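Entry 14. Ran structure prediction on the chain below.
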Amino acid sequence: MSLASVPKSPFRPALLALGMLALLFGIAAGLQRLGLGMPIAAPPFAHSLLMVGGFFGTLIGLERAVATRWRWGYLAPTASGFGALALVFVPSPLYGWLLINGASLLLTVLYGRLYRQHRFLPHALMGLGALWWLVGNGFWYLGGFVPSSLGYTGTLCWVLFLLLTIFAERLEPNRLTRPTPGSRIGMGMGILALCGGVLLHAVAPREGLVLFGVGLLAIAGWLIRFDTARYTMRAQGLTGFTGRTLMGGYFWLGVAGVAALMAPGLAPGFWADALLHAFFLGFVFSMVFAHAPIIFPSVTGWAVPYHSHFYGHVGVLHGSLLLRLVGDFGEVPILRQWGAALNGVAILLFLLNTVSAVLLARLKSVQG
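Output, structure tokens:
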């Protein structure tokens, strides 16, 4: 979609701002959970809800609404954005949960309509991911909005939501080398292992986590083997930056799979921190960093010219996550805290670099 073809809408900047607020509150809540003081207050229990439902839910819903040009599609990111604010400012978490739950339902319906129109496999996978987001919200409600066996099952559902969404995006024909029929079967088996692992985790947490880890490793290996990023990472400029950042994210997806195989179970502590943040920070945010110069203009209509200093936030993310996981695997709380704080710095640096690139581009266009 060219910038000229992006329809102007007063809703997009406001919804994007809601998503950014959810991100900032989510970071603050996560750092408060680790005992780090923050200048902005956010309920620690809502960290994952704010990050997955508030930030990523709003971002993905907004991108889909812009891509489809269906006015009702904006209801999903609106609900998730205001749901994030409700989690922060309304005493009861129920109201925020209801709004985010509504957003996940609307996004599932949107993907269902897309698939009926086009019969396109990526749309089916995205719809399955949105459905897992909805199911995960239900598990978190049943778990009482606190870390519990049901709550962690819900978190694994959210992992599936983001993984299937990203994986489906990478299944676009021009983003893959030529997968063999056997490799497509392997892809399907990996997805089945992930879905089966989540369901099994609800009744047999350890066994379910092992199966889930197998699925993570299968998808990581599949992407490393068949994504064109393995070739584009050798290029210069934005193409090379995107390829290298994607491959770094696939590495962290594999690390999350290994952590799932090794973890005795999911409970508040080092193993859960390592597994979940290898995925959400290492994999998902690498995908965000890689695609931001491409997706951001399609959503806002504002160009994000590539600059080599984009490697700054990518490097800080990888270095800080490595420090955090050393603290997790070595059970050294201070390293985990420092790593987490620097994770937040990496995300803030990403926002700063992106905004500065937009402003510089607009300034140059004004100056002619």
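The two ends are 24 Å apart (CA to CA). Will compare against last week's run tomorrow.
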